[in-house]
Structures are given as C-alpha cells and as structure tokens.
Amino acid sequence: MTVRPFVPSVMTIERHILTEQEAFPDASGALTQLLYDIALAGKLIASRTTRAGLADIVGAAGHENVQGEEVQKLDVYAQDVIYQLNDHTGRLAVMASEEEKEIIPIPEKYPKGKYVLLFDPLDGSTNIDFNVSVGTIFAIYKRKTPSGPGTLEDVLQKGRDIVAAGYMVYGSSTMLVYTAGHGVNGFTLDSNIGEFLLSHPSIRLPERPKYYSVNQGYEKYWTEGIKRYTQWLQGEEGAARSLSLRYIGSMVADVHRTLLGGGVFFYPADTRDPKKPEGKLRLLYEANPMAFVIEQAGGYASTGRGPLRDIVPTGLHQRTPLYLGNRDLVEKAEEFIAKYDA
Ligand code: AFP
Q1: Is CB count within 10 Å lower at the N or C end of the chain?
Q2: Helices 224-233, 327-340: inter-axial angle, 10-degree rounding
Q3: Residue 19, ligand 1, Cβ within 6 A
Q4: CB of 179 within 8 A of CB of 292?
Q5: Per-residue pLDDT for 68 more than 60?
Q6: Residue 267 near residue 321, CB atoms below 8 Å
Q7: Are 43 and 189 in contact, with CB atoms under 8 Å apart?
Q8: How far apart are CA 177 and CA 179, in angstroms?
Q9: By alpha-carbon position, which residue is closest to atom 12 of ligand 1?
C-alpha cells in the first residue's frame, strides 16, 4: 500500500522546534518544551486579543463575563497566562516581566530549572482600544547561579547571552517569530486547527530597505545628530534616496514590518521626560530580544553609540535608546550621532 502524507508540506512549530533540537544530541528538551509553552501562551492571548471590546459588552454588568468571572484587563491576562504556564514546569529558575517591579520567583513547592524567562506580556497595549496590532516579546537565557531559586544576577544578563528570543504579533493574523541562534523563522496561527504553521522560513532582512520608523512627533526633543540622521533617511544630508515613514507605536508590529520589509526602527534618547533620558524602551524586555531577532536575520541593533547587545544591565527596568534594522542604516545613525552629538 502506498502511504501518502496527508499534510504534505506543513511544518508545525512543534515539529520545527524539535527538528532544531535534533542538531544537539545532548539537549535535554527543556528549551524545546519552554518554547512550546510560549507558543501555547501566544494562542491563549491571541484568542483574547481578538475578542477585545467584546469582553466589555459581555461583562458589562459589574465587570463580569458570562461565566461570572471578573473581566481582566488584557495585559494582566497575558501576564497571568505566561506566568501560570511556566511556574511549575521545572524548566525555569526565575522569571521577570515588564509588568512586575521585582523578579518573579518560582514558587517554593516547584522544582527549579536551568533557564530564565524575560517577557513583555502585552507590548503596545495602549493600542488595543484602537484595534491596532499588539504583541508579546520574550527572551530566554541560561541561569548564571548554579542551583536553587534564581536571583537578580540570573536576570541581569547581556543581550549577547540570549539563548532564544522572539515575539508573537496579534494582528490581522497571529504570528510567532523566533530564533534560537540559527536564523529566524516565522509561524502563522491557523485558527481553524489551532496550530502555528511555518509560513516565513529563514527570514532575512531585504537588502533594499523600504521604511524608517520613529515617533517623529518628538523631533523637537531630539539631538542635532538624530534630527540630521532623520533628514538623511528622508533623502537629504547627501542621501542617495528617501525611505517611506511608517510608525504604529506597537514595537512588535513596527519591528515585524522592519524585519520583513527592511528599514530601520528607532526610539532615540530625548529630552521629553527628564525621568526617561534614555528614551522609552526597556532593555531587558523589548530592546534585547528584538535586537537578537534582527541580528539573526542579518541586521544590526545599536544604542546609537555601539552594539546594543553588549550593554551590561544594571537594573530590571532600565531603558535604552535603540536603533535596529538593516546594518547600513543603523551604522549611519551611529555616524551622525558620533559627528554631531559628541
Ligand atoms: P505601551 O505598551 O504602553 O502601549 O507602549 C508601547 C511601547 O513600549 C512600544 O511598543 C512602542 O514602540 C512605544 O512604546 C511607543 O511609544 P510612543 O507612544 O512614545 O511612540
């Protein structure tokens, strides 16, 4: 009898992660399982983000839904889902989230593992009310302390030491994009079967970039170097051509477009808020994981003064200026900043 494959060319995320693991015969499978759990979290969060707005209607009386459960804010829901899927598995030593002030310990009753999970559960959440894409960002590191409960030392690691990172973008479809250090792959959620399927294998930034992406509304708070760099992107300051401007205000969506369409996304240091002289983006939960993805796709990420992933973090919620995308565009930012903002 001839056995025909019933789904000839479908690569699920599970199969893909497992195939990657096969290259490492000594791997325990913990990282593979951890990535599965993150994908599952993405499916659960996606199912809620697509119902954003409906929850309010269903839960209008006393903020309860039909089951009588309290309606949670989406970012709180996303935080809880990721935490609850990962607190008991024995794969993690500790977690940290953009939503939590301190590190998130693994409860005493559960075993501790060798990995550390950092995440931004719902990035761009101020966009939810406007039906604009939001996302989840994650980074996985190996713990530094030998055993026992993970500590701050395990969390404050350089972007250079990330083992795997990626994001889920909840947009016109839900996608999961990740890298474990061997290129970047993108999966689209087929909601009919509830599976992430490989839709964007081995993503590389296009050589001819299309877009620049920045909140130009803050231009008056920028330094001379950043202003001139932006003019260069617009085809002035001796540039050979101009790029189109796109800015969503959800980092995941802006970086996703940069990854697929080519270009540069930046959130520079500015003088708008004296409490945030380094800009708005968080090094650990936003900048480092996205930098790893972009660099694995052939791009480059910088603080404007050097490689972003070399920063040694000093605080859990530290912010950083960020420029990422096609290498030549990011290096040009460094050039302008070095020349005008010495
Ligand atoms: P929210 O999660 O508060 O919406 O912030 C999103 C974000 O951290 C990042 O996703 C965007 O790139 C950036 O802020 C947008 O900030 P501006 O509104 O200052 O441009």
Answers
A1: N
A2: 140
A3: no
A4: yes
A5: no
A6: yes
A7: yes
A8: 7
A9: 251
